[in-house]
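Key idea: predict the complex, not the pieces.
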Amino acid sequence: SAVISQKPSRDICQRGTSLTIQCQVDSQVTMMFWYRQQPGQSLTLIATANQGSEATYESGFVIDKFPISRPNLTFSTLTVSNMSPEDSSIYLCSVDHGTGPLEQYFGPGTRLTVT
Amino acid sequence: GQNIDQPTEMTATEGAIVQINCTYQTSGFNGLFWYQQHAGEAPTFLSYNVLDGLEEKGRFSSFLSRSKGYSYLLLKELQMKDSASYLCAVRTDYKLSFGAGTTVTVRA
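Result:
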């Protein structure tokens, strides 16, 4: 399995500001995914990030609000821009294992509170 | 899009068995996954089915019927530490779509 770390683990931010979340994997992976989990809800895919190409966003998520970088095969960032209280959520990155059944492994998450 | 349904909550007694059902409607099915998520933690992978039938992994088993769009996760010999949310997820192409999750509470 892949070991995934995220920074920061949690943050409290002011409305209108932006926060960049980092995701680091201990091995090279082709695909990295960013999810949001709002309080009491399940996971919703925000976008898929491949190295060397622009991220692919799911319906309801746009690049201006959630810009993503994927500079290499072990690292990605997600920025939550111009935050509002509705962005308060847990943000998780995940990766495909790349072999076998292609299960996805999740990072520990970043708990964001916007005031 | 995907339509994935699972019960919201289930309660069972320590040592008992609980079965969590998941029904789905999807195009381009490429596997069904079960994840466990304890409160405040990230989801952890439990099991995977891509062909019909039962997959057994210790106390946990998962079943899939593709023709019925149906899966279940069976938890045997329940322990207090099994109290968690269990997420059913369907893979299409390379993406996972998650159900809302089933909160299982194990009572002594």
